[in-house]
Specification:
- The chain is of the alpha/beta class and 323 residues long.
- It is 48% helix and 13% strand.
- It has a seven-stranded parallel beta sheet. A two-stranded antiparallel sheet has the order 2-3.
């Protein structure tokens, strides 16, 4: 469950002592946050504590995290000249603290608990760079990719290489699987995805260390799933807007991850158990289903409800379906 630490008292205690970027850049503290959900909830895998935008900071775009608002880029990209002016980045030097977090977390985890690394996909990173932060319509991004085609391709090429190097660094440090988050790609039509995004997601995945499982995830991507499968990855992440069985019929033989609505965790005990059972019944014991939420867990989520979900899935699936 991505962002699994942020609703836990242990994480909030850490945040009271560290700013968000400071916490991400402190390997000992970040490794501790990575371990907290495993120790508290009994989930079957650990997800690295970091942020998808860390690789953008060395580009000199003015990354900051504003309390109550989220990430902001103070010097966004708005022209071909802005793309051409981006500096060359040594990923290992720029985000080496993340690789150290991976090493520390891997060393502390039990041998049977895998560690999952992650990165933002090229499109999502590009949208942050162009919009300057989160967006609803992504007008600036869509306009840029149409009116500045060469600059768009140059930007996506740079980002696809950075993403691959970042993930390969995590793999070398001990991550046993990685997830590519295309959080905002659901804003695109299928044809725009194939033309402007798919080649660069494919390139990032192609460059990854052979043999490492790759989870490819987006939000609001029901219409994009076949094209995302073509872009690559061993597992497709599904949000709650698509049924598991329906997705499998469209996609064929591929593993999937998902897809409980995070808001379902605000229900009562019976409701949470029924929702978990419904999803597992859709999976019907088919190999290649990773039970998970359909997107990041919400900060207000009751910790006890998350533990209930983990225990319920372990009970109903006989511990054969990771959460």
């Amino acid at each position: 469950m991505r962002q699994a630490g942020r609703y836990m008292p242990e994480y909030r205690a850490m945040r009271s002592r560290h700013g968000f970027l400071e916490l991400c850049k402190n390997p000992q503290a970040a490794a501790e946050v990575t371990l907290q959900p495993v120790e508290r909830l009994g989930v079957d895998a650990a997800i690295l504590f970091a942020d998808i935008l860390l690789v953008l900071e060395p580009l000199g775009v003015g990354l900051e995290f504003v309390e109550g608002e989220g990430p902001r880029i103070s010097r966004p990209i708005r022209s071909a000249a802005d793309v051409a002016a981006l500096p060359t980045v040594d990923v290992g030097e720029a985000v080496g603290v993340v690789f150290e977090t991976v090493r520390l977390a891997r060393k502390a985890l039990a041998e049977g608990v895998p560690l999952i690394g992650f990165a933002g996909a090229p499109f999502t990173l590009a949208s942050y760079l162009i919009e300057g932060g989160p967006s609803r319509e992504f007008l600036l991004t869509k306009r840029f990719m149409r009116t500045e085609r060469r600059a768009w391709e140059a930007l996506m090429s740079r980002l696809s290489a950075i993403v691959a190097e970042y993930l390969n660094g995590q793999i070398a440090a001990g991550a046993q699987a990685v997830q590519l988050f295309d959080s905002w790609v659901g804003t695109l039509s299928p044809s725009d995805y194939r033309e402007f995004v798919q080649p660069w997601s494919r390139e990032s995945i192609r460059r990854l260390t052979p043999g490492t499982p790759v989870i490819h995830f987006g939000v609001g991507t029901a219409g994009l799933l076949p094209s995302m499968k073509e872009a690559g990855g061993d597992v497709l992440g599904l949000d709650w807007r698509v049924e598991l069985d329906t997705a499998w019929k469209r996609l064929g033989d591929i593993a999937v991850q998902g897809n409980m609505d995070p808001v379902a965790l605000f229900g009562d005990t019976l409701g949470i158990r029924r929702e978990a059972q419904r999803i597992l019944e859709q999976a019907a014991g088919r190999p290649g289903h990773i039970f998970n939420l359909g997107h990041g867990i919400l900060p207000e989520t009751p910790v006890g409800h998350v533990r209930l979900l983990v225990d319920t899935v372990h009970e109903l699936a006989g511990k054969t379906t990771p959460l």
